[in-house]
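Need a sequence for this fold. Nothing fancy.
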């Protein structure tokens, strides 16, 4: 039965958010950073970023990083209404759309209305293919001049739902692990070939970090530079100002952040 009542969506979102808090609060969270300043709760966090993670691990950031100036991209499908309300109660703003339905409008809304906020995108949602990165985050990162951070996430032997993404439900009191990449700055105004080139690189990176986090969670071993992480609000959540160049005028010079290699020049036929 489809739920169409706004009241029931609101009530369902509130109940689900309470369940997520209680369930996810039992887990042991640890993170391995290549650069700790990419975490919005770090006092040296230096501005907006685009965070990408696979759809199956959405519960992890929903619980751990609410009230951290995040705008979350969610599907326009009716089934996502309760998830949207849940994310709101967990401390996220939401934009509705996907690479399949309402994608262009959602990207415009992210560009125009997400000023001063981090963006969180599950680039294989809402229908898959599983762990295949869509081009949307690459386009946004290039157009807005914001760096991408890939978040590999894993649980210790989670239960898996029979959905397209094999959505992961962690066992209570189990281990949850994440490995975050450094901030990756892409060239501005990439063309179609450039977007596809960097899409492949970020997809490969995100899959590698996800497998690393899953193996770490299952093994229970210690990891070099591991850090225990807690659910806490960002100390910077009222301080961001979206640079005016992002929506008009020429793009500024790219800052000196880690970059992916440029595509090789094509050989003449």
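Here you go.
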């Amino acid at each position: 039965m489809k739920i169409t009542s706004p009241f029931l969506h609101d009530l369902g979102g509130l109940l689900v958010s309470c369940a997520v808090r209680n369930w996810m609060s039992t887990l042991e969270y640890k993170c391995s950073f290549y650069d700790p300043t990419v975490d919005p709760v770090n006092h040296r966090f230096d501005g907006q970023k685009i965070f990408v993670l696979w759809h199956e691990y959405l519960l992890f950031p929903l619980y751990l990083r609410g009230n951290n100036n995040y705008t979350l991209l969610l599907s326009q499908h009716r089934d996502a209404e309760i998830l949207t309300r849940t994310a709101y109660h967990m401390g996220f703003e939401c934009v509705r759309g996907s690479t399949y339905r309402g994608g262009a409008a959602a990207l415009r809304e992210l560009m125009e209305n997400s000023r001063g906020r981090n963006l969180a995108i599950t680039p294989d949602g809402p229908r898959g293919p599983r762990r295949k990165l869509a081009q949307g985050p690459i386009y946004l990162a290039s157009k807005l001049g914001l760096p991408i951070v890939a978040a590999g996430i894993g649980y210790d032997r989670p239960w898996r739902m029979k959905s397209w993404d094999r959505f992961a439900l962690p066992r209570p009191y189990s281990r949850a692990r994440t490995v975050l990449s450094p901030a990756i700055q892409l060239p501005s105004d990439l063309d179609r070939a450039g977007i596809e080139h960097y899409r492949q690189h970020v997809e490969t990176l995100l899959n590698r970090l996800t497998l690393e986090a899953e193996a770490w969670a299952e093994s229970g071993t210690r990891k070099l530079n591991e850090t225990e992480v807690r659910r806490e609000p960002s100390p910077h959540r009222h301080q961001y100002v979206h640079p005016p160049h992002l929506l008009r005028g020429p793009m500024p010079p790219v800052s000196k952040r880690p970059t992916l290699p440029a595509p090789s020049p094509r050989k003449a036929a």
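For context: The helical segments are 6-24, 59-64, 81-89, 103-113, 136-144, 192-219.
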